[in-house]
UniProtKB/TrEMBL annotation:
Domain of life: Bacteria
Membrane-spanning residues: 20-42
InterPro entries: Biofilm_reg_signaling, CHASE4, EAL_dom, EAL_sf, GGDEF_dom, Nucleotide_cyclase, Rev_trsase/Diguanyl_cyclase
Organism lineage string: Bacteria, Pseudomonadati, Pseudomonadota, Alphaproteobacteria, Hyphomicrobiales
Pfam family, one: CHASE4
Keywords assigned: Membrane, Transmembrane, Transmembrane helix
Domain EAL: 480-730
Name the record gives this protein: Diguanylate cyclase (GGDEF) domain-containing protein
Domain GGDEF: 338-471
Amino acid sequence: MAGRMSRRLQHSPLTFQVTLTVMALAIFALAMVVGFGFYAAVQADSVSLERQKILFANGMRDRIAAVDREQESIAIWDDSVINAKAGNELWMVDNISVWMYSYYGHDRVYVLDAADRPIHAMREGNVLAPASYSEDEPVLLPTVERVRRLIRDPAKESLAGDPVKLAAGDLVELDGKPAILSIMPLLPSSDRVIQAPGSEYLHISVDFITDALLAKIAGQYLLAGARLLPLSQAVGEAAIPLVDSRGVILAYAGWDQERPGSALVRKAGPALIGGALLAAGVLAFLLRRLRRPSSALQTSQAEAQYLAFHDTLTGLPNRALFEDRLRRALLTASHETAKVALLYLDLDRFKHVNDTLGHPAGDELVRQTAARLQQAIREVDTVARLGGDEFAMILIDVNDIRGAEDVSEGLLQKLQEPFKLADDQVFVSASIGIALSTGPDADADDLLRKADIALYEAKKNGRGRYQVFAGDMDDLLLRKRQVESELRLALNGGTGIKLAYQPIFAADGSTILGAEALIRWGHEVHGGLPPAQFIAIAEERGMIGQLGKWVLQEACRFAVGTELPWVAVNVSPLQLRDAGFAEQLAAVLAETGLAPGRLQLEITEGVLLDNNDTTRAALAALRQSGIAIVLDDFGTGYSSLNYLRRHAIDKLKIDRSFVNLLGRDESSEAIVRALVDLADALNVGVTAEGLETEEQKALLVAMGCREFQGHLLSLPLEPAQLLRLAGLLPGKDNTPAAVSA
């Protein structure tokens, strides 16, 4: 017994030491595990916080973009331009101020005229005197001036010649509170309303950033306790700064930080204490538990990665991911024979759906469109949403352009099927621009530009179709831009543009009754450009108002200094669709001193066919002031006795195509006789244009025509030559050389 006791006592220190060692190792291991657990918890909290900041920042950007979209719904609208310029206060209250407050929640709205003077003001749903704008003007003025600079010269703000949206926004501080500011000009939504550059009114919208707004943003991402933190208040980690365009912090947006790692540690605490008694079990337990924060961390990173590269509305790749995939596709294609096709797609009636059914219906239309596009392409291809109703598709391994055209035809057919939006069935169409990579040196930016140009051509040529980019589109676009730029310079004090005058004679062939003003442009490089060419560019690029005003001013200045009975000026249909055209013309007459009865305006039949309220009102106001209205090229269009009766005119001009066939074609002779009789029955004058032979003149005189214009009598002349021919200016030669027609 004594021996056994001795051996037991000898083993006791060893056993104790082993036990102490095991316990020390267990405690050390437990401490390592606990320390690692706390470290993982802190890391998980940190990653979660960064994800929360990204989500909240995205939410703020979405709200700023929403303010811009909401404002655009009323800023780009024919009625807004017309009623704002007419000073229709009641209409502005119902449509562009109180309505913006009650429907979208915009807190303040101002409307400025072309000289940036306030004509309308609303704050928190209450219409105030326009002068109240002065209280906010010091803060709003820099953004107002930026919009004006954009309007005056958008080319300076553009990148690689791309068009610039004429709008500006910022975060500002008003009454000690941060707010979202958006300013854009009131622009026509169609070519029915034309306004001269520089005459745009501005619409200012202010949306205050409040606790309620931040709570709404936070609610989208399941964040709680969102609130506005002024600079005077302590700011925690769960906050993002609200910074204006100068980099000044106006306030902070804060929320209650989610701490998934800390919550996990609190839940695992009791288990850690119990595990101290069973080190091995604790270690196994902790290893299992520590896998969860690692998984949560990976999930958070994956979510943040997804949100950074995908559209939140449709789940499609956004522009950033799309451009990355396009560059990768082009890099792969450069080593293979297959090509890459890029398709730009734009819905044709999207704005109409938004305006009539509301923005929720528009969002649903975008979602359904995205689903159809995904179903119509292969899994290896990419469809992305670039913004609004704009989509893009990358087709890889395309052998030739026919493959891209087949896909485009399928897309157009797919989108022609009706869309079910709430209780409405909606039909839309789409336009598609196609660009195909052209070899190993294909550039992504160049391909994007070509697809955009092709899309523009598809829309211009009728919509509901696709258009493949062709090389001459680039040349045509560059030429148009060059002509547009040079035309602007010529109108703003440059040289080259002038007027010629073709006299209109009485039946005796010598008495000059008046003259028609004809615009000419002697281009320094291209020589004499045909008027139809640069006038079409002026109409397309929104310059026809400026060009037409210049022609009217020059013609009136010339006529007022002569004894010509009258001068005739051609007017574009787009000018007549401008609600302010009649006022503008009255100002020109007052400035030059020309009597209204000495001015005739020549219009085409298309103006009468348009038959809109603005055109009818303009024609009525012009005739009432004493200006004569002449219907040019009569008989070549949709001639209708109904619109001749509905729109009173003063004279018809028989088109040269009928006059040229007189004496050679019996049907043309019968048509001309009928037109002369029609003018006589309507008690209006009649002029035959394009007169070239004595035989034509004799036939027309016999029919009763009393006014003639054509090369037989005189070509278009310089102003001095016309006066010399009319005997109103002394000179040796009364048969001056003509200006080419």
